[in-house]
């Protein structure tokens, strides 16, 4: 009996240690399994009870606050933080200039630089506004090629400019100093050169002989001007001090002389206009000679005739002056044949 009890006691210690070891191993494995389950199982929203559901239907604001709904933010179409705008280069021109000397003519100046006389007007639009500007001491802009220097205005486009001057759009783009690159942006208050263009010169048309005769009859003046000139012309003044000759930009001749000098009719005819002209002529007289010719006498200081009056070659009709677009006392004299401006020097014996 004593021997049996001693054997049990002897093995009881071993059994206890084995049990404790087994419990430790089981606890360790259970801990690992729990951690793995937490890693593999995705997070789930907390269960919502029926009571909570009923509450959410009655109070939407509270329900939305209770449920954490993820917000998806799409930035695919958000603009760049620093947007870029196209900025083109502005035209860069480097033109020569020329100071007019005594005896210069538009054709002579143009020949010196290998351009057409019309291009002088293309680079100097004031020449068509100031009838006697092409005189000694005046500085002109000389364009490198034939064309027009266009002042860009708000709303201008390449198409509108090309249409205005009747030239291809590509010729404007191809002129390198214009600095035009796609999308061909134009900048107001800059200038672009339009190759091959010719600047238009406004031509004012005086009243017809028929309209003057009709008006005179209705007014009861008794004037029924029916007269034809001789077809030959004399100088309207006793001076040959020419300050500008006939050319595209100046459809007449300018003769400088003191203000108030008598002006005579170059040939017999009927006065169709006598008064102030708003197109740069100043005080102007127009005589219709009844044979297709008309003569113009501009920038006068005084007028001695009225529309509808018959004048004869050599009759005094006014006096020289400095009115309208004029830079000094002179007379601007034109001859038109069937409405076309012609060189007066061909008709008065040379200039």
Question: Can you give a write-up of this model?
Answer:
There is one protein chain. With 351 residues, the chain is an alpha+beta fold. Among the domains are: 96-195, Roll (Membrane-bound Lytic Murein Transglycosylase D, Chain A); 209-346, Distorted Sandwich (Glucose Permease (Domain IIA)), CATH 2.70.70. It contains eight helices and 14 strands. The strands form three sheets. Strands 5, 6, 7, 8, 9, 10, 11, 12, 13 and 14 form a ten-stranded antiparallel β-sheet that branches. Strand 13 and strand 14 form a beta hairpin. The radius of gyration is 49 Å and the shape is rod-shaped. Residues 42-57, 60-65 and 215-224 have low confidence and may be disordered.
Compact summary:
The chain is α+β, with helices and mostly antiparallel strands and 351 residues long. It has helices at residues 2-40, 50-58, 60-66, 106-113, 117-123, 158-165, 169-174, 209-218; strands spanning 96-99, 139-142, 147-151, 191-195, 242-244, 253-256, 262-264, 269-277, 282-288, 293-303, 310-311, 316-320, 330-337, 340-342.
């Amino acid at each position: 009996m004593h021997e049996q009890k001693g054997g049990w006691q002897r093995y009881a210690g071993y059994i206890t240690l084995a049990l404790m070891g087994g419990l430790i191993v089981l606890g360790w494995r259970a801990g690992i399994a729990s951690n793995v389950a937490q890693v593999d199982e995705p997070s789930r929203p907390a269960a919502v009870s029926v009571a909570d559901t009923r509450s959410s239907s009655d109070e939407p604001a509270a329900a939305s606050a209770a449920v954490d709904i993820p917000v998806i933010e799409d930035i695919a179409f958000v603009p760049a933080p620093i947007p870029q705008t196209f900025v083109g280069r502005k035209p860069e021109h480097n033109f020569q200039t020329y100071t007019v000397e005594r005896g210069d003519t538009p054709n002579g100046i143009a020949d010196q630089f290998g351009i057409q006389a019309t291009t002088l007007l293309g680079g100097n639009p004031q020449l068509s506004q100031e009838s006697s500007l092409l005189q000694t001491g005046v500085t002109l802009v000389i364009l490198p090629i034939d064309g027009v220097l266009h002042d860009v205005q708000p709303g201008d486009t390449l198409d509108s400019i090309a249409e205005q001057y009747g030239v291809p759009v590509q010729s404007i783009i191809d002129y390198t100093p214009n600095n035009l690159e796609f999308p061909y942006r134009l900048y107001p208050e800059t200038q672009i050169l339009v190759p091959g263009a010719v600047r238009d010169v406004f031509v004012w048309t005086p009243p017809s002989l028929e309209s003057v005769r009709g008006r005179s009859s209705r007014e009861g003046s008794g004037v029924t001007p029916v007269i034809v000139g001789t077809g030959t012309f004399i100088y309207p003044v006793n001076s040959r001090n020419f300050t500008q000759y006939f050319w595209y930009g100046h459809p007449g001749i300018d003769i400088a002389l003191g203000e108030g000098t008598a002006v005579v009719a170059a040939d017999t005819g009927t006065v169709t206009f006598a008064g102030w002209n708003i197109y740069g002529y100043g005080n102007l007289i127009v005589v219709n000679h009844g044979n297709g010719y008309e003569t113009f006498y501009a920038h006068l200081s005084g007028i001695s005739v009225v529309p509808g009056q018959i004048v004869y070659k050599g009759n005094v009709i006014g006096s020289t002056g400095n009115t309208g677009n004029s830079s000094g006392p002179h007379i601007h004299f034109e001859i038109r044949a069937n409405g076309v401006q012609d060189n007066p020097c061909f008709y008065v014996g040379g200039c």
